[in-house]
Write a sequence for this structure.
């Protein structure tokens, strides 16, 4: 039996248990994957300052994100096709997050629908939308989220067009997976995954099929997806989508200080410094190198959160030290979900919480509010402007 002590342990188990098509979907970036790699590698350049003879008793990593109390400043990021990593994956991830006391963000491109997750959970979750052309669909989507008691809307602003991900094209990524000789041969080696999928009716994009005009089954989804994203997106359009929701809004996918200013001026409750996990503009800077400057620019106007590259509680602490008020994890909890279902997501959260708490104490802090850049040794030229 594998002893799970870190996120990499979950990743190794995940790789063995989930079909290659969906493993590669999580473990891929666009084009050459330079940005995908640097998102994690650049964390290693930041070193901690160890402090001794400091009273470490009574530590707490509890915080708030857009006014909501959280056990630690970590939310489960919106991840498409989560229900293909594990049967009913979105439901299992949402339950684990609620029990642990952190927010769960449901993706528009989820397998389980908004209604599925709401019916199977007791705690409000957040909902993520893309900037799509169809106002009627967007309104109905938001109305469904409100009816499900979603307490905040996350608008992804860095996906006007899809960055090319070579592995997904080569694997013929789809939900449900296309049955080819290659995919069938691989899925036959993933017995527990297959049994789980046989036991659920949720195998399509539950928020889209049967809801978007002209999308009644999987065969009509690909043409809709190709035309749905709004390449004419501008700040006025983002403002209209925020008004359409009328509640708490987080804008995700900002990597530039001027863009951060525009987002803050629109009244975003929070912005997420993110390069979409290296899945959009390859060659863009890692998120962690851009964080500090964006915090300096707009941190007094809105909450600045961090996304892209977190694989440990130490990574969370480094982002907090550079000014982030919250963080998002995507791949880290996906590994746990694919490895062990709901229990695996809980494992991922428990690992990150313990690493965050222990490292904070060894850096001489007992509260996140006392954490700042003084706990780090930052190499010259690390921050990008």
């Amino acid at each position: 039996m594998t002893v799970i002590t870190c996120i990499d342990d979950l990743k190794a188990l995940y790789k063995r248990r989930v079909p290659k098509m969906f493993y590669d979907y999580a473990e891929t970036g666009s084009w050459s994957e330079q940005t995908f790699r640097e998102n994690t590698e650049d964390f290693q350049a930041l070193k901690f300052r160890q402090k001794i003879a400091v009273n470490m008793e009574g530590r707490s990593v509890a915080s708030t994100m857009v006014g909501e109390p959280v056990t630690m400043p970590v939310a489960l990021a919106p991840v498409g096709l989560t229900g293909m990593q594990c049967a009913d994956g979105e439901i299992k991830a949402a339950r684990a997050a609620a029990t642990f006391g952190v927010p769960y963000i449901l993706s528009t491109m989820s397998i389980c629908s908004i209604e599925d997750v709401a019916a199977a959970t007791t705690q409000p979750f957040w909902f993520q939308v893309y900037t799509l052309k169809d106002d009627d669909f967007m309104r109905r989507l938001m109305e469904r989220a409100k009816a499900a008691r979603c307490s905040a809307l996350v608008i992804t602003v860095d996906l006007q067009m899809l960055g090319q991900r070579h592995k997904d094209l080569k694997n013929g990524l789809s939900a449900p997976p296309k049955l080819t000789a290659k995919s069938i041969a691989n899925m036959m080696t993933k017995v527990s995954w297959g049994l789980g999928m046989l036991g659920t009716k949720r195998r399509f994009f539950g928020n889209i099929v049967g809801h978007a005009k002209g999308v009644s089954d999987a065969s009509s989804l690909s043409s809709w997806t190709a035309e749905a994203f709004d390449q004419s997106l501008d700040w006025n359009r983002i403002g209209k989508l925020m008004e359409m929701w009328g509640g708490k809004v987080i804008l995700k996918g900002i990597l530039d200080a001027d863009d951060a200013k525009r987002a803050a001026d629109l009244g975003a409750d929070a912005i997420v410094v993110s390069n979409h996990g290296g899945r959009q503009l390859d060659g863009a800077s890692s998120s962690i190198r851009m964080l500090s400057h964006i915090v300096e620019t707009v941190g007094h106007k809105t909450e600045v959160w961090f996304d892209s590259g977190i694989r440990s509680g130490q990574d969370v602490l480094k982002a907090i030290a550079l000014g982030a008020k919250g963080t998002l994890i995507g791949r880290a909890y996906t590994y746990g979900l694919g490895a062990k279902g709901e229990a695996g997501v809980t494992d991922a959260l428990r690992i990150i919480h313990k690493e965050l708490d222990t490292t904070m104490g060894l850096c001489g802090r007992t509260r996140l509010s006392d954490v700042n850049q003084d706990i780090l040794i930052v190499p010259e030229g690390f921050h990008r402007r």
